[in-house]
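S1.2 Input.
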Amino acid sequence: MSGYKYDEEGGQFMTFCLTALLAFMVPYTYRMLRPQRKTGTSSAPSHAAKAQGWLDQSGHKVKAVQQLMRTSPVWKTLHWVLLAAGWAAVALLFKKVAYLVSHSEHKVYDPFSILGIAATATEREIRRRYRKLSVEFHPDKVGDVSNQTKAEIESHYIEITKAYKALTDETIRKNYEEYGHPDGKQEMSMGIALPTWIVESKNNWLVLAVYGLVFGVGLPLLVARWWYGTRSRTKDGVLNATALSFFLALKPTVTADDLPLLLAKTEELKGQYVSALRASDESAMTELTEKVRAAYEHDTGKELVPEGVPAPVARALVLLMAYLYRIESRQAHVEQIKLQMGRYTEKLLTSLLAMSTSHSRLEQSNVIRDMMAHFVQAVPLSGGRVSELLQLPHMTVALAKEALHLDMVAKYGLQGLWKVPDAERRAVLAGPQGMTTDAYAECMRALSEWPRLELVDAYFTVVGEERVSAGSLMHLVVKMRLLPLKRDGSLLREGRRLDAKNKDGSDSVRSGMASDSLPDDAAAGREPTGYVYAPFFAEERKPQWFVQMGDHKNDHLILPPTKFGDVGATQTRTVHLPVIAPPEPGLYTFQVQITSDSYLGSHAVKLMKLNVAEQRLASPEEEDEISDPEEDTIAGQMALMRGEKVKPSNVVYADDDEEEEEDDDDDREDSSDSDSD
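S1.3 Output.
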């Protein structure tokens, strides 16, 4: 009867515990000790920052955002304590495993190690070493000199003798070489890597308690939390109740003016964040409401909170507008909630964009997509050029409005500001009421590196074809790069150089060559970029871009916004997007748009004409060869019964006259045969 054998020494169990602990400690240690990314004020920027410049470094955050993103000192201390305790446990386990391995009864038998000689030792060296050890460790010679018992001394002597015979005796050495032991084949057993103390009856209650806590409490709670999280939220990360409210409220008539109130009505903003306000925040909220109302009404001429709006929704709306207008609260707790709402709103807008694109609403999708950049940069929705200028460090609303008095700035925004002579620009921005010398220098450094998007090329192609047929699968090929002002000061209009020839509509379809097939990542011109300069956004994020195509005349979205990243200044980024051609032949005009999800004014637009040809039909001969069955086949006979065309059979049959002649010949042969008889 077979039975279970447990790990008497506990070595296997200790090894398992050590492995499991190291699987946790190694990545945890890397997370704790990895070099922190350098901030914009550092003299030693990171590798990404060296490649991209000052603008793409992390750490460009206002103090309130830095405090929000900073880990609590208590939690930080606990992390370090956990790290030290973990590695202390690793050291203890490693020491225990090493001891058990060196003293284990199940270690690999090695006669050379027992005798203390090299594996390359000659037979003479083996004999000489054995004589020395046999004299040194003979039971009659050792006596009571050592601290070992008589049984241990005898066992060691027997082990030395057995090792010597394993290397010198022909039969014993054969057993050692074949079975790994001088005594021949050893008993093989399969055991359980658990020490016996775990399964002892006196420890049953402890083992059962641990199992009950892990599998009866911990695991169900973990699964329930995961299940509730997946069931209560959509794939965009918003609550199902919020998604339902978006579905019901997002009508075709919803405009940009309606979206802030729609966001304020969500369960997250009016519930989770507004409910976090304390009684001590009432006076600060009242003061903040007055400031926001004054700024909003002065900017838009409209009422901030419509009549009949519930108080939680009104507060959420005030906090959203305070975030966009960069109006600070004197209460730190209110300021923290405001910044958290601004960060979460980007997730809500992502959900809204998905719903709008599902209905193929071009203009509405454009409004939602552009609003994302406003919340990332924390600038007013209706600010126009003012909002674009507010993206620069140390820029205020007053300074932005003063800069708009310059014709180049009013016409071209940020790139127009770069074109203004420095003396004239400095007089506006760095005057007595403006920026300091250091602040102005930092503002100009950011302006020189601002990520303007240049649309290098855009066209349609069908792989293997020279034209686009109705209903065929084609690809929209878009080539772009970033063009910082310090690299090339050429003015861009909608992503195209002003001095470039207008190719819109003239070269929109290219021959589908093999090079136009979908490229791999290396051939796509990917270039890792740094972080977005967004001092008020409570999160470090990588810049990404939307590319979409629509029929602007009919307000119809054809290609939904598709995100991609890694657009750099030294390589041309190529994106291939599959598109189904219109089902009917004709001349179509589409609008291709590329927009940043983080920067205002960094976009590209191109009108493209697409001449769709009729679907090529097969010739009658080709149709006959392909579709018509042969006459002598079952399919051919069925087609004849239905009155359909069939191909003539390939079998050659004799004519009737020939058959008659053959019959006559046969008759003559038969008669001649009979006459001869």
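S1.4 Remarks. The longest helix spans residues 73-102.
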